[in-house]
Amino acid sequence: MEMTSPRLLWAALLLPLVVSGVPAEEPTSGEVVDPSLPGGCRRCCDSEDGDSEDALAPADASVVAPPSALPYIVPEVRPYINITILKGDKGDRGLPGTPGKLGKEGSRGDRGPQGIKGAKGQAGSPGSPCRTRSSAFSVGRKAALHSSEDFQPLLFDTVFVNPDGHFDMAAGQFVAPLRGLYFFSLNVHSWNFKETYVHVVHNGAAAVILYAQPSDRSIMQSQSVMLALAPGDRVWVRLFKRERENAVYSDDVDTYITFSGHLIKPEDD
Prior knowledge:
By secondary structure, the chain is mainly β. 8% of the residues lie in helices and 28% in strands.
């Protein structure tokens, strides 16, 4: 029978070892495998009895058998994988991708703790001057006064309130600082057997009149009025002489004559 090729035999023996990864036990040199033992190797051309082997044996034992007929040793195969060579070095960071779509707005979170009080800031630049939003005065007179020919202004010698100086004491006149509504009140004391005739004047024209006929008793008289004034308008008090003597009473102890006024409402409010 024709001998099997050594290369094919090598491949047939090596394939199961590579797949299973278990080294096969092969007889070492000098050991003879008994074909009768389980698992023993046996060539198909061998006969059942030993006579056939003797018949096939060469006549001269000293003759060297060909290499293909010599026993061979199957090398032990131990599969080994170096895992360290499979993982490469860390690569460079890639470019950022395009932003995705905005997600839905989440629910409002809990209020955080109060922060630390910050340092005091720098002072701001000066603002524009504040506009006057109020005006008031109240003045009085301690001296009596008799009227002369024509009109005679009533001057005052006592100041109760005049915080913004809108009442001119030298001229005896109030000067309106704002356009708006103003309230004025005049109080005088009449003189016995003399007529009392007084005007509250607005820019030279009599706005209201305070009048008392002559009497054997002196009494307090009052008059009040509300006027719409423009900035710079003037309001004052004057006596007017008619056929009879005109006078107002007062003394150095008490103040019988008073004139007061204040801004009720600016026009631009």
